[in-house]
Design brief:
Helix content of chain B: over 70%
Distance between the termini of chain B: 51 Å
Strand content of chain B: under 5%
Shape of chain A: globular
Distance between the termini of chain A: 35 Å
Structural class of chain B: mainly alpha
Oligomer: heterodimer
Radius of gyration of chain A: 23 Å
Largest interface: A-B, 32 and 30 residues
Largest sheet of chain B: none
Shape of chain B: elongated
Number of helices of chain B: 34
Structural class of chain A: alpha+beta
Helix content of chain A: 25-40%
Chain lengths: 427, 581
């Protein structure tokens, strides 16, 4: 720390102690929200930035500067919001902001303007507890507004009214996550089967797999027309399987009264999928796995792979700001976590998709990003970054115990990245 | 590194170099097994079919084919193989397989025909019907399973046949009364069903419980009374349960035959429950158990019964048990000592303090010194609660332990001697008593710490009222004590305590008013605490917006308060951002 900065910080501390209230020096023009180890509430920092944009304000995302810091105007609303959320804020002058920008110009960093809060939708079964979904938890913890929608809204073409859509552990093959056999009789499964069946019939589909395929098509169309899609856990794998199977029966007989087409794997149309290609389907209705896209196969005891750690890749902030935004973090190596789909075998990833994180030495990737039409998609394997071996019925994750969670930061990077103003790429 | 890799690889290389049997020497069945083990189910199915072409009734191949086809959801395609095998060499294994295959093929008429054909060949005609019902149960066809089991019952001519299965079906259908009736029938077949029946019926939803009890007819005693006894213990009426237990034991039948085991099973159920009624029911059951025991076990059981009665607030029954122990020649010295201790506990808990003092004086030497000191402290607390401070002091004057110091501090506080209280509480430190007592003591120390006076009789009187459980007088006393104090010198602290007491006794309006007064004083030590408590109160009153405003005010006004993290957490909980604790 430079001496002048140190004296400045001392002065702020003294003033606060004397007055006993949150006060900043009058000379502050900006609030720098550091996202390195100095930050006390990493996850809520995204919420403070998001709400500034909601209020019509603008900010900057300082990519690769202090682990992805935010530079916001020093207004009273942000000051109050940060204090309430416990987010660490450093008041700085316009001169100090210029110094930061100069530093950014000379390094692999960039300042991306943040202009408009995206309208966020979460695809979730009606009545699902918020604790079932890492993204819902992250959004609620950070205080980012979102709306919930499900099959009826998607089929009614409501998706174009949103900028950003999140899918979690929905099974788009319509096989109830293939829990049908192993959890037969469990009340939650009975309810899931009932709700899905009734909805599919009400929407005019013969069965749940047919309804889910139609939903997957609408989601694809949403991205093609410029939407931002973020999917985790099973939604990643099954969305692509449902899209690739638009002409093929890949559902077990319990789901649609006919067994899977025995030659289904060979008949899949991968040109229609987002990120994956050439996968072999799991033919057994009793094995709760869908294909060989997932590297970890957590629910298949003979095939299950142990958890390691995944490493975030580095990108050029000035040339490749989108991928850089998605990997902003104060940790480069993050402990892995299981989900029904934990990871993505690299030999099943399309060449056009960008791997954002993988486990060094392992054949799988963890975090992917790609473009489709005018939109983009990001796939993140696993269920809950702070509950690595999540099981049905486990106690919900309390994010106030994980305010620095690097895994959850990756989720929130995705929420904020649609707010960034698009820049011409420097070539 | 390379060397390690080679060392690890070498066994594999050696294994690879070992001569393998030529493919022609591997039997077709072995080949099919290998393919199945590798997970190539379609190829495995073909290999099993090749075996069956040579021997159509090879059961190993047929079962392998079933496994492989099930893995790829194509079981129904083995119908031809099953028909051929059944025609060639029918057996129970093949009949069971045929049921599964026809069921997978969705041919219920063929399934029924196979069951009837199979039943005609079996000595135990029930087996095919049980297989049939189990199969339908696996497919969650509850009404079909029920029909199958009932058909088996009719075929057997015995009204209790397949009752355990039918009980389970009825439960899955949500019909607990029928389930109870079937479980009673199942008891006739085997008493081993008792714990399963209890475990299943315990889950009966509230609205169906009266119907289940009607079916069990506990008034007439017998096994139904015993099951009802345990169920009632689980469902929150252990006293009624104990009554049914007695009826069950008095009626000839399984309950009476199992006698001691039945009581022990009931005792296990009620022992885990912490309610007053459960403790009384436990005492009654233990008393029944003691009547059926002999030797030293009798005194031990009665002692436990006495403790249970004492916990239940039934000192007369506890005394009765202890008196019986006194007359028991088989009771050991250790047991007699425990009986004296229990008697003292009963007397103290029952407010019989002079009697407890007499017991202590006459028989105190029969219990170990540490227990005796502990009982003296409990006696002192009981006198304190009655306001007899001198009599309380008499029991702890010679107590030099940290627990004694903690109690002396409490006594000093009741006398309004703040200087003495501070000194004793500091001597006691954080280790005296339980964690709760330690926390309470710290809170009391925090309460009197800012007060500059050495003595404040008004506060002592308020604390005495609190000790007696008279919260209303305690609040009024705290108000009087606070009147002469500067808010910063303890006045605000006493105001906060009075507000907390008011909230605890359920007077939300008064508590809210009091918290607001303390919050407005802006005394840094108490105002944030008052704001936090006020926010909690407002949330309880379902006024979340006001609570959030209060919490925001706390965080923004006292950003350095140690309570800010708690305030943020409460905000997160209130807006549903984190699970409630």
């Amino acid at each position: 720390m430079k001496r002048r900065d140190f004296l400045g910080a001392m002065a702020i501390g003294a003033a606060s102690a004397r007055v006993g209230r949150v006060r900043w020096p009058r000379s502050a023009d900006y609030f720098l929200i550091p996202m390195d180890e100095a930050q006390a509430e990493h996850l809520k920092a995204y919420g403070v930035t998001f709400r500034l944009l909601e209020r019509g304000g603008r900010g900057e995302w300082l990519l690769n500067y202090r682990s992805g810091a935010f530079l916001l105007p020093a207004d009273a609303g942000t000051q109050r919001d940060a204090a309430l959320a416990g987010v660490t804020v450093e008041p700085i002058s316009a001169g100090q902001a210029d110094q930061i920008r100069a530093e950014i110009a000379g390094t692999n960093a960039d300042a991306v303007p943040l202009e408009k809060a995206p309208k966020v939708a979460v695809y979730v079964t009606p009545g699902a507890a918020p604790w079932d979904d890492a993204v819902t938890m992250a959004l609620q913890y950070a205080g980012i507004k979102f709306e919930k929608l499900w099959d009826a809204e998607v089929i009614a073409d409501k998706l174009p009214t949103y900028d950003w859509l999140h899918l979690h552990h929905e099974d788009f093959t319509g096989q109830y996550s293939k829990f049908y056999m192993n959890y037969a009789g469990a009340p939650w499964l009975r309810e899931m089967v009932e709700v899905n069946g009734v909805t599919a019939r009400r929407l005019g589909f013969a069965n749940v797999p047919a309804a889910k395929k139609a939903v997957a098509e609408r989601i694809r169309g949403f991205v093609e027309r410029g939407g931002f899609l973020f999917a985790m856990c099973t939604a990643t794998e099954t969305l692509d399987l449902a899209l690739a199977a638009h002409e093929t029966d890949i559902a077990a007989s319990y789901a649609d009264n006919t067994p899977m087409d025995p030659g289904a794997s060979a008949r899949l149309d991968w040109n229609h999928a987002f990120a994956f290609t050439g996968a072999q389907l799991e033919a057994s209705p009793t094995v709760p796995q869908f294909s060989d896209i997932d590297g970890h196969q957590v629910n298949s005891l003979g095939r299950r792979q142990p958890l390691g750690s995944f490493t975030l890749f580095e990108f050029s902030a000035k040339i490749d700001p989108v991928n850089t935004m998605l990997i902003q973090n104060h940790r480069q190596v993050i402990p892995d976590f299981y989900g029904l789909t934990t990871s993505f075998n690299k030999n099943r990833i399309k060449p056009g998709a960008t791997v954002l994180a993988d486990e060094p030495g392992a054949p799988w990737a963890k975090y992917l990003h790609g473009e489709l039409g005018q939109g983009t998609y990001t796939f993140f394997g696993g269920h809950d970054p702070e509950d690595p071996q999540h099981a049905i019925g486990d106690a919900p994750t309390d994010l106030s115990l994980h305010p620095h969670s690097p895994g959850y930061r990756l989720i929130l990077n995705n929420v904020l990245f649609p707010a960034a103003k698009k820049k011409e790429l420097k070539t | 590194m390379l060397a390690i890799a080679l060392a690890l690889l070498s066994p594999c290389l050696l294994a690879a170099q070992r001569p393998q049997p030529p493919a022609s020497q591997v039997s077709p069945l072995q080949r099919a097994f290998d393919l199945e083990r590798r997970g190539t189910y379609a190829e495995a199915a073909s290999a099993y079919r090749a075996v069956l072409r040579a021997d159509s009734a090879d059961q190993t191949a047929l079962l392998g084919l079933e496994r492989s086809l099930a893995a790829i959801d194509r079981t129904a395609t083995m119908l031809p193989e099953v028909r051929t095998a059944l025609a060639a060499k029918p057996s129970p294994v093949l009949y069971a397989l045929a049921l599964r295959v026809w069921s997978a093929a969705g041919e219920p008429d063929s399934v029924r025909a196979t069951v009837e054909r199979w039943a005609g060949t079996e000595a135990d005609r029930v087996v095919p019907y049980r297989e049939w019902g189990d199969l339908l149960l696996q497919r969650r066809d509850l009404s079909g399973a029920k029909r199958a089991y009932l058909a088996g019952r009719t075929a057997s001519g015995e009204p209790a046949t397949l009752s355990a299965e039918l009980a389970q079906v009825a439960q899955l259908q949500g019909d607990y009364a029928t389930s109870a009736a079937e479980w009673l029938l199942a008891q006739r077949l085997s008493p081993g069903y008792r714990s399963t029946a209890i475990g299943a019926l315990t889950q009966t939803p509230d609205p169906q419980r009266p119907a289940v009890l009607r079916v069990l007819a506990p008034e007439s005693g017998g096994e139904g009374a015993f099951i009802a006894a345990v169920l009632l213990a689980q469902w929150g009426d252990p006293l009624k349960g104990a009554e049914y237990l007695r009826r069950s034991l008095a009626t000839p039948g399984e309950g009476a035959r199992q006698g001691t085991a039945s009581i022990a099973a009931f005792v296990e159920q009620v022992r885990a429950l912490g309610t007053r009624d459960a403790r009384r029911a436990l005492g009654e059951a233990l008393e029944l158990l003691a009547e059926r025991q002999g030797g030293a076990a009798v005194a031990r059981t009665r002692l436990e019964a006495a403790r249970a009665y004492a916990d239940a607030g039934a000192p007369a029954d506890a005394h009765r048990m202890l008196a019986l122990i006194g007359q028991d020649r088989n009771a050991s010295g250790d047991l007699a000592s425990q009986a004296v201790r229990t008697l003292l506990e009963v007397q103290i808990a029952g407010g019989e303090l002079p009697e407890a003092e007499r017991t202590l004086a006459e028989q105190g030497d029969r219990i170990p010194p540490e227990d005796r000191a502990n009982l003296r402290r409990r006696l002192a607390v009981a006198w304190m609660r009655k306001g007899e401070l001198d009599r309380a002091a008499a029991h702890i004057d010679a107590d030099s332990t940290v627990d004694g110091a903690a109690l002396a501090g409490r006594l000093s506080l009741l006398r309004g001697d703040l200087r003495g209280a501070r000194s004793y509480f500091q001597q006691a430190g954080p280790y005296a008593g339980s964690r709760t007592e330690s926390t309470d003591r710290t809170a009391l120390l925090a309460l009197i710490q800012p007060i500059e006076a050495d003595s404040l009789p008004a506060l002592g009187a308020a604390m005495q009222a609190l000790e007696r459980g008279d919260t209303l007088s305690a609040i009024a006393g705290l108000d009087r004590a606070a009147e002469g104090l500067d808010p910063k010198a303890g006045g605000a602290q006493l105001g906060l305590f009075a507000a907390q007491l008011s909230g605890a006794r359920g007077d939300a309006a008064d508590a809210e008013k009091r918290f607001k007064v303390v919050a407005a004083t802006e005394v840094p030590a108490t105002a944030p605490a008052a704001e936090l408590d006020l926010a909690r109160l407002l949330l309880r009153l379902n006024r979340p917006r006001e609570a959030m405003a209060q919490l925001e005010h706390l965080i923004l006004t006292y950003p350095r308060s140690a309570l800010v993290p708690q305030a943020r957490r409460l905000m997160d909980e209130a807006r549903g951002a984190i699970p409630s604790t």
